[in-house]
Amino acid sequence: MATETAGTRKSVWDRLQDIDPKIIYGIMLIAVFLPLIRPLGVPIGNINPEVTNLYNYLNSLPAGSIIVHDCEISPIYMAECYPCFVAFLNEHVQRSFKVIMFTQDTTALPAIEKGITEVYGKTKDHPNYGKTFVNLGFLPGSTLGLNAFAADNLFPVLDAYGNKLADMQFFKEMADKSARSWRLVVGYGSGGVGYLVQQITDVYPNCKTSSGTAAVAIPSHYAYYPNKIIGFLGGLTGAAQFEYLIGKPGIAIAGMDAQSLASLAIAVLIVVGNVAYFAARRTKAVRGG
Amino acid sequence: MEIGETLSILVASAMTLALMSYLWRENTVYRIFEHAFIGAAAGWGAISTAQVTWTNYLEPSLKTSWLWYLTIPVGLMYLFFFSKKYFWLYRYPIALSIGSGLGVSFFRTMKTSFIEQLRGLMIIKDWQGVLLVVGTITALFYFYATREHTGPFRYVSETGTWFLMIGFGAQVGTAVMARISLFIARANFLLSEPAYYMIPVALVLLAIGVYRDYRKKLIETQVL
Asked: Is the pLDDT of residue B155 over 60?
């Protein structure tokens, strides 16, 4: 219903298309802050097949299987990838998997330390450090470094705390100190995990690829899913679904109310904008006719 | 909580709010903190890369074979970037790293991301496979410029456009979801103690800023 009365006055439809961005920011602030202050308890809903596949694959692995995390969790990806990382680690502890963690981005080092402390309680002082989990810290050399590490797990020589890898029980128990012993390699960040498929899964087919990816990189995963990428956690939603499956609610489930309400607010704004656009066009066409 | 930790959280909270102040408008506080963040990230990256590369890789390797000493002058050649006269020497380490990186990744990229993708495309298992084949062919045809898209070709091209638009839509949707997640993480942090002490401070500063803007606009209107 247009309320155009004078020639210079804008109709409701025109005004709806020209909302001040500050009002939209205000709506988003309310949509995000409100459910964080007063949780709404929005149900998780259906679990994506990508998450279920990954969960089933991990369930099929025996205890002691080696899972490798390429933690590209720089501050930019902390919000989305860190909850995925913690959910993965919680699952690995439940299932008694062995974990190797490293990063090719120095700004991601604090995220690894934080995740280990949150899940295991301690880092290098933990009694199981060097037996069931190892933090290699920064792995330089990009693709070359990854390639060398996959071929020889003792290539980094020292871990993040200066301990010799060759002296660790973790590596002593490995019959084959290459990626042939790995069962899953997990990537993070927004660049996609195509490089892990190329450098690890294609060369060592026993080791599947997965990820706790930033949502922007989700579409790039489908090129390799489900043959090479066994499943993945897509952003905060994927992490929340995985937390639900492993029965350990964490930061991702806590953020889902805000995620749902903010997504709904954006969807409503898009619908309002488009309805206003077509209504304004129709009104102009009728007047013109 | 220790004083140092409290202070660091308050500084982090102030930085978050300062960066969020860009939503109101571009301002000096936002600029200062943006540069501080970039500087801190660059400094942290440079120092930790140098430190880890030396302690974990180069130093232990030097003990095993003298051949590793050859990598030091090659690495130092990067510094010729700052010399106009010897800039050409800087190209050698670059050529080495690009060449070896390309050599390692080129074959596998071609195999995994091109040949195997094409092979996967040729085996249609279900209706999703049909959709994939139709989408790929029509989207590729959209970029086919040798023949004019008229007659039946117009429909093929238009179908390709639809597939592309749906793909872009999905990409934008996930990007929006990612941005919301970022905001949620920061909001969660701002609502934690003692980070939320900075919220009233930020609101007062914002109110002063908005008032000053209003006054400035009012004076400009009166002058006119």
From this structure: yes
Q: Which string of b and e fits B127-149 if b means at least 16 CB within 10 Å?
A: eeeeebeebeebbebbeeeeeeb
Mutation target vs B (from A211, A218, A274; most B CBs, 10 A cutoff): A218
Q: Which of B12, B68, B1 lies closest to B196, judged by CA?
A: B12
Listed in sequence order, the residues at least 6 apart from A69 whose beta carbon sits closer than 8 Å to its beta carbon are A85, A88, A99, A100, A101, A102, A185, A186, A188
Best CA proximity match to A165, nearest among A100, A258, A225? A100
In whole angstroms, what is the distance from residue B44 CA to residue A225 CA? 36
Contact B156/B138 with Cβ under 8 angstroms?
yes
Distance from CA of A49 to the nearest CA of B (A): 15
Q: What was the pLDDT predicted at B144? A: 87
pLDDT in tens, A95-125: 999 999 999 988 899 999 999 999 999 899 9
pLDDT of residue A8: 62
What torsion, rounded to 10 degrees, do the Cα atoms B84, B89, B93, B98 define?
80
Alpha-carbon torsion (A76, A79, A80, A82), positive or negative: positive
Name which of A106, A147, A197 is nearest B112 (Cβ-Cβ). Answer: A197
Name every chain B residue with its beta carbon within 8 A of the beta carbon of A263. 176-177, 180
Return the CA Rg of chain A: 24
pLDDT at B159: 94
Angle in degrees, CA B108, B109, B113, rounded to 5: 120
- Give the pair of three-digit tokens for residue A117: 């402390």
CB A145 within 8 A of CB A139: yes
Residues in chain A: 289
Averaged pLDDT, B126-141: 89
Phi, psi of B149 (to 5 degrees): -80, 75
Q: Token pair for residue B84? A: 């106009």
Q: Give me the amino acid identity at B54.
A: W
ipTM of this predicted complex? 0.81
The pLDDT tens digits of the residues spanning A9-57 come to: 778 888 888 888 888 999 999 999 999 988 888 887 789 999 999 999 9
B38 touches chain A (CB under 8 A): no
Q: How many CB atoms lie within 10 A of CB A141?
A: 18
The reported pLDDT for the residue numbered B108 is 83
pLDDT of residue A157: 84
Give the Cα separation of A136 and A156 in Å (integer).
8
- Low-confidence residues in chain A, pLDDT < 50: 1-6
